Amino acid sequence: MVEATYVIGNGFDLHLGLKTSYKDFYKYLDEQIEEGNFKDNGLIKDIEDSIKDIRFHGDPDRKEQLDPDKERPLVDWSNLEAGIAEDLKRLAKTEITHEEITTRIDNFFYELSKCLSRYLSSQNDLVHLNVSGNQAAEGILKPFRSLPSQYRDNLFNSIKKRNFGIADTTIKGRFEINFVNFNYTNTLDQYLSQIANVDNLDFKRVTYGSRIATVNKKILHPNGTFSETSIVGVGKEEDIPKELNLEDYQIEYLSKLDFARGRQDGRVEETFKRLKDSDVTVIYGMSIGESDAAYFDQIIEGMINNTHKYVIIIQFEKNYRPSLQGPIFSKRKRNIKKQLIDSYEIVHGNESPIEDKMKSQIRDRIFVEFDYEPSSYFPYEIKEKQENPEINRFAD
User: Fold this and answer.
1) Three-state DSSP class for 357?
2) In a domain, 354, yes or no
3) Residue 206, Cβ neighbours under 10 Å: how many?
4) Sign of CA dihedral 294, 299, 300, 305
5) pLDDT by position in tens, the chain (length 396)
6) DSSP states of 86-100 as a string?
């Protein structure tokens, strides 16, 4: 059986018009602080100060517009999570008391998570999609169709070789498309609501006859949804300084991976399996940050174990155009590939390093595509768009 797994990040919701970037959430936090809310929350105050340092170059009294060169740190959620990890390291070097750290995590951190949940819920309520089955199929197929023909042939020929060894023809003829959604919203569920199968001639090349791929409607949410407590934290327990001497429940709450496992519904293990076992992994609109390294590591482990496995990464680059193939974008592509491969070393350290030859082979099986305005990925129509609803800011 051939499996393709789509990993969906916040770029998908931004593509649909939702204001769900870190910068948008910060703007909301800034408004709340100006209204006198969160004045006793030291964690939110530290976030405010760190953003002002980025935005105003260390001088909050300067009122100039955001420096375009500094915009990315305010867009990617991975930068917020990296900032939280740095904040914990900073606290570990201070003489903070157990009572103070408990207040910061049990009260301030929880309040930040609830605030994020309410904000994302308000954004989710803005958009109701009207996406036909044909549009959804076009969105699913676009990452493959955007590949240069030689790369596309290499990908499908490689998968065909792996599938050739399967004796059972009923299994050999199956093609399944899975989704792992790192967003808290339900926009992906809306997008896929009218599609069950994808018909494509290229699929016939790898399944030895069938050109139909089944869309698995069970979308995995490793980080949860906004109806649950949104997880804002560090990647795993090892990222939390031991010097803080936190309680076990605090460590579980701060660690996104442990918090997800704590739900005891198997979502982490199932996500790991999809990422590791799929023949093709498509990553759309997701920053490859250290806080999610445990998940990206599974992709690289899969590429080490299965030399026929490929990865397609689509990231938004405002200034990119197909006619622009200069060194800046070549460097950006190499950096994106490196970030993905480095996730393996973040998780495993020096225990089992990837040999240079294997790294090169893996790098050759990672394709990077850039999306830009007007986007040609995931076409959609809006059925209904509401005005900004009033956010119930302080309800539990």
Assistant:
1) helix
2) yes
3) 25
4) positive
5) 899 999 999 999 999 999 988 888 888 887 887 888 877 777 777 766 655 554 444 444 444 444 444 444 445 666 677 777 877 888 888 888 889 889 888 888 888 888 888 888 899 998 899 999 999 999 999 999 999 999 999 999 999 888 887 777 777 889 999 999 999 899 999 999 999 999 999 898 888 888 999 999 999 999 888 777 656 778 788 889 999 999 999 998 888 888 888 888 899 999 999 999 999 999 999 989 888 899 999 999 999 999 999 999 999 988 888 887 788 899 999 999 999 999 999 999 878 889 999 999 999 999 999 998 888 899 998 875 555 544 443 333
6) HHHHHHHTTT--HHH
Going 335 to 341 to 346 to 351, the CA torsion angle's sign is negative
Residue 152 covered by a domain: yes
Q: Where are the beta strands (DSSP E) in 9-149?
A: 127-129
Q: What is the DSSP letter of 265?
A: S
Indicate the Cα dihedral angle 82, 84, 89, 92, nearest 10°.
Answer: -170
CB contact at 8 A, 178 and 140: no
Is 29 inside a domain boundary? no
C-alpha 192/C-alpha 186 separation (Å) is 10
Domain assignment of residue 105, yes or no: no
Q: Which domain holds residue 289?
A: 2-16+128-385
Local structure of 66: helix, strand or coil: coil
CA trace torsion 151, 155, 160, 163 (10° rounding): 170
Axis crossing angle, helix 293-305 with helix 327-348, rounded to the nearest 10? 90
Q: What is the CA radius of gyration of the chain?
A: 22
Antiparallel, parallel or unpaired: β 127-129 and 382-385: antiparallel
Provide the number of structural domains found in the chain.
1
State the burial class of residue 94 (Cβ atoms within 10 Å of its Cβ: 0-12, 13-18, 19+). Answer: exposed
